[in-house]
Design goal:
Strand order of the largest sheet of chain B: 5-6-7-3-8-9
Strand content of chain A: under 5%
Distance between the termini of chain A: 27 Å
Helix content of chain A: over 70%
Largest sheet of chain B: 6 strands, mixed
Order of helices and strands of chain A: HHHHHHHHHH
Order of helices and strands of chain B: EEEHEEHHHEHEHEEHEEHEH
Shape of chain B: globular
Number of strands of chain A: 0
Radius of gyration of chain B: 22 Å
Largest interface: A-B, 22 and 26 residues
Strand content of chain B: 25-35%
Number of helices of chain A: 10
Radius of gyration of chain A: 18 Å
Oligomer: heterodimer
Number of strands of chain B: 12
Number of helices of chain B: 9
Structural class of chain A: mainly alpha
Shape of chain A: globular
Chain lengths: ~240, ~270
């Protein structure tokens, strides 16, 4: 247990040193929030009702999809995995530790948004903070599970970034944070249902905890965990 | 002496390419044993099968003792510091890194550097230290001095000798013949997936015949010759020089190097 905790702490420190995760988990989402928060609330004053949720969905999706996969590629597509194996460290450890570290960073970023948005843009605080944070916790986990698939499946950093952006853009555009999903063409609306951002946004924006929003997230998470298990097994061969 | 490792009829293929074709050998406890072979002879595959990092097709491998492994190509996260890596691997293996070993390997001097800032030699030393965190009885070193300068090489040789004195069994794969000649108790030469020779350096010399290098210096030139029959060759050379009326200033005769013997066996010359 001590080894695991030390590993998680060490990974958290390494992520801070690496700067990549700092940029994707903090600087870019917060910068986006600073600019878009101002634009959204001045163009559509009613946007302040869901500003925290929409900016959080953007920040978490970006941090998870763009920030995590390169760390996984560094471990699993290099000689690091052999060193882990040769020194008696289980192969899943890299995946678990990078996920825990990214989870903590994304949660911290979300808390910063939660605190700053009402002060900077008079954003409305969620009606039920407990439900909001429960939804946030689930949404971060699901987003990271999707990122883990990308990080394990693709062996090259440049390709990883490309695939991450291909997943990231529709996630955000079809999630309802920019404009209501109901305004989208039917096909786009349906496509949006396959990404966790849409369900995460709904889960956090609803004043009551809606099981119908949670169920797709659980389904995506279970499928992603299974996919990660298979990919890890493949990496081990 | 007891056997630290016993390999029987080990076979491994990659598709239709047979890399190990019935490998048999033993490594005794406390000895430094070298695996030699030309590129693609199967040295790394053999080591990785023994280390449990690679699956093999058939045969048996018995390892008596805890293993420490330094890989030929190894890496760590680029922002990790040496002591952090050692601490993590030690915690995971429920051991404590030996301070004297870390000091001897110069790890404390690297404490403030991150992995990407280390030189090749420093990385090699760190990976050796990592392999030792498990307090192994048997240490595998795959091309341990590849890419090192002379100073780094000598320093690593010193550490390997120190580890032997501590009673560790060391198995190394190497291209460096001088290193093998200098460090190892026994060597095995791999050729076409099998052991072509196993024994001491002296035994290798006897197996392939007595090979000599002859250097003859005259007032005008210095000529080099090779011979498997020193008496006959010398007599012939002396006669030639006498006939040319070229007085000999100096003659040097050396035993053939391990490299010459190795090439003969590995390439079936």
């Amino acid at each position: 247990m001590m080894a695991f905790l030390y590993g998680a702490f060490l990974q958290w420190k390494l992520d801070i040193r690496s700067k990549t995760l700092l940029i994707t988990c903090y600087i870019v989402p917060l910068l986006f929030f600073a600019i878009m928060g101002g634009i959204f609330t001045s163009v559509m004053p009613e946007a302040r009702h869901t500003l925290i949720q929409s900016m959080t969905v953007f920040g978490v999706t970006m941090g998870a999809l763009i920030g995590l996969p390169p760390s996984l590629v560094e471990i699993y597509s290099s000689d690091i995995k052999k060193v882990y194996k040769a020194n008696g460290v289980p192969l899943y450890l890299g995946l678990v530790l990078t996920n825990i570290s990214a989870y903590i960073h994304l949660f911290i970023m979300s808390i910063i948004l939660y605190i700053v948005a009402p002060l900077a843009f008079s954003a409305e605080i969620p009606e039920n903070p407990a439900f909001y944070f429960a939804g946030l916790a689930i949404f971060i986990a699901v987003s990271l599970s999707i990122s883990s698939i990308i990080g394990l499946a693709i062996k090259d950093r440049a390709k990883t970034s490309m695939v991450s952006i291909i997943v990231f853009l529709p996630s955000i555009m079809l999630s309802g944070i920019m404009f209501p999903v109901e305004l989208l063409p039917k096909a786009f609306e349906t496509a949006g249902r396959f990404f966790p951002a849409l369900w995460g946004y709904r889960l956090m924006a609803d004043s009551t905890f809606q099981f119908k929003n949670l169920l797709p997230l659980i389904a995506i998470f279970i499928l992603a965990i299974c996919a990660c298990g298979i990919l890890l097994h493949k990496v081990d061969k | 002496m007891n056997e630290a490792i016993k390999i029987s009829n080990l076979k491994k293929s990659y598709g239709t390419n047979i890399v190990l074709n019935g490998l048999n050998f033993c490594v005794q406890q406390g000895e430094i044993f070298a695996l030699l072979g030309v590129n693609g002879a199967g040295k790394t595959t053999s080591l990785e099968c023994i280390e449990g990092l690679r699956k093999y097709d058939s045969g048996s491998i018995t390892v008596n003792g805890r293993m420490g492994i330094q890989l030929q190509s190894a890496s760590l996260p680029e922002h990790i510091k040496p002591l952090e890596a050692l601490k993590m691997f030690a915690k995971w293996n429920k051991t404590t890194p030996d301070k004297a070993t870390l000091e001897a390997l110069g790890i404390y001097e690297l404490a403030k550097k991150q992995y990407y800032q280390l030189s090749t030699g420093q990385k090699r030393r760190l990976h050796l230290a990592l392999a030792l965190t498990r307090n192994p009885d048997i240490l595998f070193l795959d091309e341990p001095t590849a890419g090192l300068d002379v100073e780094g090489r000598l320093s690593l040789h010193e550490q390997i000798r120190r580890l032997k004195k501590m009673g560790k069994t060391i198995i190394l794969a190497s291209h460096d013949m001088a290193e093998v000649e200098d460090l190892c108790d026994r060597i095995a030469i791999l050729s076409e997936g099998k052991i072509a020779f196993i024994g001491t350096v002296e035994q290798l010399g006897k197996t392939v015949g007595k090979h000599y290098n002859i250097t003859i210096q005259t007032a005008r030139t210095t000529e080099k010759y090779e011979s498997d029959n020193i008496g006959e060759t010398l007599l012939s050379l002396l006669t030639q020089y006498k006939e040319k009326e070229e007085p000999i200033v100096d003659i040097q005769i050396n035993r053939g190097t391990l490299e010459q013997h190795f090439i003969k066996i590995a390439k079936g010359v």
